[in-house]
Amino acid sequence: MSEQRSEQSTEAVPAPANVVAVLGRGLVDADAPIVRADDAGLTRGDGCFEGLHVRDGVVTKLDAHLARMARSAAALGLEFDTAAWRELVATAVTAWPESGEGALKLVLTRGAADGRPTGFAFLTVVAPAAIRQRGEGVRVISLQRGVTSAAFTDAPWLLGGVKTLSYAINMAAGREAERRGADDVLFVSADGYALETPTGSLVWAAGGTLHTTPTGATGILAGTTQRLLFDNADATGWRTANTLAHLDELHAADALWIVSSVRGPVEVIELDGVARSRSPHLDGEIKRFCDF
Amino acid sequence: MSEQRSEQSTEAVPAPANVVAVLGRGLVDADAPIVRADDAGLTRGDGCFEGLHVRDGVVTKLDAHLARMARSAAALGLEFDTAAWRELVATAVTAWPESGEGALKLVLTRGAADGRPTGFAFLTVVAPAAIRQRGEGVRVISLQRGVTSAAFTDAPWLLGGVKTLSYAINMAAGREAERRGADDVLFVSADGYALETPTGSLVWAAGGTLHTTPTGATGILAGTTQRLLFDNADATGWRTANTLAHLDELHAADALWIVSSVRGPVEVIELDGVARSRSPHLDGEIKRFCDF
């Protein structure tokens, strides 16, 4: 499907069907409420999630996402039954009536005080804007994240690397970008290092090496798409590195991307108002490494 | 009701009744789900809330809470109809069948992508542990929050002072305290200043002055109970001040409290393993200033 047709289709046809499947219950009406007023996932953002890409009925990197969600759940002290989640994913994907690219969200909440955790899968079409940005690239602004680049060392309560439901700042940063006429945000640490974006990993090419921000002390999420990219790049002879970089190093890089599971890799075509020339050859290679 | 009876009652009688009222719908079954799988309040912690205290059918500091929630909603770009929320609160409180102290939570989410925000009120009894701590005090550990004390200056996307639903770190810090045998947490900035607790404001008495942490650049929440306390203290001749303090200044203070709406003011009886002698006279005065 071309990008243009994909966009037009959202104008011309009824809203695509969504699918919701709940752990322990199976498929439910996608428009029906599923979470109680006292579920801590709702009232405290206390839970974790994953966002996965579905193409032609196949979920990409399913094992990596389930492994990361299991780690998130463990960090939150929540149980995670991988086999049950795998079955839930299959239920949702099998029931989905759409044929385009799908965005699958898996959510696990702590539940109500007197209840059990709530787990569910939500499957919808990939937003046309995401597919368009994959082709056109994105204009990015850097925003201060307020945390130091080593804040998460020996501080498990800060939930570094845990994909929690508490994304209010990530969403607010996205709205700030929109207000400034940009498409996305690069978070920068209090000590001036590039971290990650609200919903993706930063990758850049410089001097024949592919770089990304180190996880761990920085608290950033270990990206499943970034991992796939580096594994495939390593196999073809690229050098790869985890690097703490200041913004001037990014401005000097050969090319930058934001990589994430649903939108895929998108090239950064402008950083803080400075236009970047595109790198079609590199961009194509990065997309292949990410299976896009 | 004595603390002991309050605790016993949770053992001896059926679970107390909760009340849930939804904006635009009124009272609903408290056990029924009210939020959809794609509500951003659930999937992104994208929304805001307030926690209020109810005594003998009266909501305390209602205007202050509604005003703060209106500010939170505005910071998130969400509409907030104060009159409608006031009516929702009245609906919930009137329907509540319990006679003890109540904890009322007001929640506003961004809603689903194609829908409207979800607003609801949830009213339940105050946890016996909260009432017990009001009398016995709390043992507190300090934990690094990772942010610098001026991080929120000119950074509205960090949602400083906004009471969002994204409380996963606050909840994780509470679990860390429990693991270490403590009752509560004092967050400390990356540059070593006392900030706030996961669900309350810090107040301390030193040299005839009552202190609290400044809002604004620190990103901490403006506490409605701290405000009431300082207003009443000011009126009786106390000096009050907004002060950035290191932990050693807190150890040297005459007395420390954590103040919040539902639990009320609780005296800190141990900080980072160092026991503090209690200050019954001061503690009584602080409790009166807070209307507890």
Q: What labels describe this entry?
A:
homodimer; 292 residues; alpha+beta; D-amino Acid Aminotransferase, Chain A, domain 2; eight-stranded mixed β-sheet; six-stranded antiparallel β-sheet; 31% helix; disordered N terminus
Can you put this structure into words, describing what you see?
2 copies of one chain form a homodimer. Chain A has 2 domains: 3-126, D-amino Acid Aminotransferase, Chain A, domain 1 (2-Layer Sandwich), CATH 3.30.470; 131-289, D-amino Acid Aminotransferase, subunit A, domain 2 (D-amino Acid Aminotransferase, Chain A, domain 2), CATH 3.20.10.10. Chain A has helices at 3-12, 40-43, 62-75, 82-95, 128-136, 168-179, 224-235, 247-251, 280-289, and strands at 19-22, 26-28, 47-55, 58-59, 102-109, 119-125, 138-144, 184-188, 201-206, 209-212, 239-242, 255-260, 264-271, 274-275. In chain A, strands 7, 8, 9, 10, 11, 12, 13 and 14 form an 8-stranded mixed β-sheet that branches. A 6-stranded antiparallel β-sheet of chain A has the order 2-1-6-5-3-4. In chain A, a hairpin with a 2-residue loop joins strand 9 (201-206) and strand 10. Chain A starts with a helix and ends with a helix. The model of chain A is unreliable at 1-10 (pLDDT under 50). With 292 residues, chain A is α+β, with helices and mostly antiparallel strands. In chain A, helix 1 runs antiparallel to helix 5 (128-136). The interface between A and B is large, with 61 and 61 residues.
Structural class by sheet pairing and helices of chain A? alpha+beta
DSSP helix fraction of chain A: 25-40%
Helix-strand sequence of chain A: HEEHEEHHEEHEHEEEHEHEEEH
CATH class of the largest domain in chain A: Alpha Beta
Q: Using CB atoms under 8 Å apart, which protein chain pair has the greatest interface?
A: A-B, 61 and 61 residues
**Strand coverage percent of chain A:** 25-35%
Query: How many domains comprise the coordinates of chain A?
Result: 2
Q: Quaternary arrangement of the chains shown?
A: homodimer
For the sheet with most strands of chain A, the description reads: 8 strands, mixed
Backbone shape of chain A: globular
User: What is the count of helical runs of chain A?
Assistant: 9
Mean pLDDT of chain A: 94
Fourth-level CATH superfamily of the largest domain in chain A? D-amino Acid Aminotransferase, subunit A, domain 2
Enumerate the spans of chain A where pLDDT stays under 50 for 5 or more consecutive residues.
1-10
Separation of the first and last Cα atoms of chain A: 14 Å
Corresponding CATH architecture of the largest domain in chain A = Alpha-Beta Barrel
Q: Determine Rg of chain A (CA atoms, Å).
A: 19 Å
CATH-derived topology of the largest domain in chain A: D-amino Acid Aminotransferase, Chain A, domain 2
DSSP strand count of chain A: 14
